[in-house]
Amino acid sequence: MVLRKYHHNKQMKQHMQQQQTSSSSSSSSSVNISLPPITLSFFELFIAGGIGGIGCWVFSYPQDVIKSRLQVTQNMIVPINSTSTSSSSSPSAAHTPTTTRYILNSMYKKSIDGGFYDCFKRTIQEEGMSALWKGFGPCAARAFIANGVGLAAYEMAARFL
Length: 161
Description:
Order of helices and strands: HHEHEHHH
Helix content: 55-70%
Structural class: mainly alpha
Distance between the termini: 29 Å
Number of helices: 6
């Protein structure tokens, strides 16, 4: 059963009366009732698009978090500054050069060695399930606005063409 929206009860009653008179005059035993097309406002289209956009991200956001972690950490290096310290107070000790070494961050290296499943498993073990939803609020807000405007603009443009 398809739910239809009518702006006026009078319009619905007239349409149903026309359908009844046309079906009673036909010799067919089946009743075919066609309803007028749905007309939604811009606001209703905006809400529908926004809810659809959030629904899409609810199912795909945890996978997107893991994908992003794998992309960011693929070549991640961490600088380690080390200085040689001397117990003497000689003037040369004050001008000891600083050496910088770069190492691959071991936490992220573990995440990228095993691929997607290993990164997923380690994220849950080390940070909990809530780590898969970090940053979901701003993403949902952006998705609601972007998809709401997108659907409403598309439908409005289609009406004028």
